[in-house]
Amino acid sequence: QAKKLGKNRYYCFDENLNEQLQRRMTLEIDLEKAISENQLFLVFQPIHCLNSGNIDKFEALLRWKHPRLGMISPNEFITIAEDTGQINKIGKWVLRKACKETKKLQQNGLNGIGVAVNVSSRQLESSFITIVEEILEKTGLEAKYLELEITESIMQNIDTSVRMIQNFHELGVKIAIDDFGTGYSSLFLLRDLPIDTIKIDKAFIDEINDIKSQSIVKTIIDIGMNLDLRVVAEGIEHDWQKEALNDLQCDFGQGYFFSKPIPSDEIIMNWNRVF
Ligand code: C2E
Ligand code: MG
Ligand code: MG
Ligand code: MG
Fold first, then answer.
1. pTM above 0.80, yes or no
2. Ligand 1 within 6 A of 75 CB?
3. Is the beta carbon of 261 within 6 A of some atom in ligand 1?
4. CB of 213 shorter than 6 A to ligand 1
């Protein structure tokens, strides 16, 4: 009996692994034509000033509507794109689209609104700065309205990344550290790089009522104040989280409590309705 069970289990595991590999391969292949077949699009989530409630900027988030499998999470397909190198082409598309749509927002009443774009460390290769310059020029978006969100994973290739980020700083493009506190050596980044913003990971905001998480969040906010950085709390879902962050004097926040990420057309529609 035991032997039979064991065998079955092994069989199940094998099938599962096979399925996972299949899916990965399918996504990898289909991702190749996702851009040309218009399956990719961006949604935008507002980042609010917690004091005034005003929208400070939007974070652009990538979406993939697969023709057969439906919506695929960026957590799944970005990882694949990073492994295969497809992220360079996709990342370029994201940047161009994000800058273009933000320019359009600015022209439709959202004067001075900025955009934050996620960038994988794999994109930080030498040609990237030229690409960004070109996109800014072509879309007419001023550099100061663009913020690039990087993660602590850039530590893996720290020399290239440091140079790159200094170049962006000179261009006037802003830099944020995303998912702050979940990676490693983040304090080195704050010391050695011209960073503008740190984004406290949702994991800490989820547990903001827990005494330890609260101390960590408070400490990050203090570091931000002392180093003259903007601090954004990610993943605010409830009023009590916003209140707690206000008490801790956190400047900015983002999350479903304010809004889910939405297409830029919808932002323009809502904006014109309110004002
Ligand atoms: P991220 O940059 O940390 O983005 C925040 C994620 O949290 C987004 O998930 C957003 O939709 C989600 N979120 C925001 N507020 C809430 C909330 O209140 N509750 C919950 N449960 N979730 C919230 P999304 O859009 O699925 O993106 C996941 C990750 O995929 C991003 O994490 C980012 O690392 C990556 N990603 C997304 N778009 C791009 C892109 O264009 N390029 C690159 N390189 N990575 C991207
Ligand atoms: Mg982000
Ligand atoms: Mg994040
Ligand atoms: Mg993330």
1. yes
2. yes
3. yes
4. no
Q: Give the number of whichever ligand sits closest to the CA of residue 176.
A: 2
ipTM: 0.98
247/166 Cα distance (integer angstroms)? 34
d(Cα 182, Cα 164) in Å, to the nearest integer?
22
pLDDT in tens, 13-50: 677 888 899 999 999 999 999 999 999 999 999 999 99
Measured distance CA(221)–CA(236) in Å, rounded: 16
Instruction: Please work out whether the CB of residue 178 comes within 6 Å of at least one atom of ligand 1.
Output: yes
Nearest CA to ligand 1 atom 41: 62
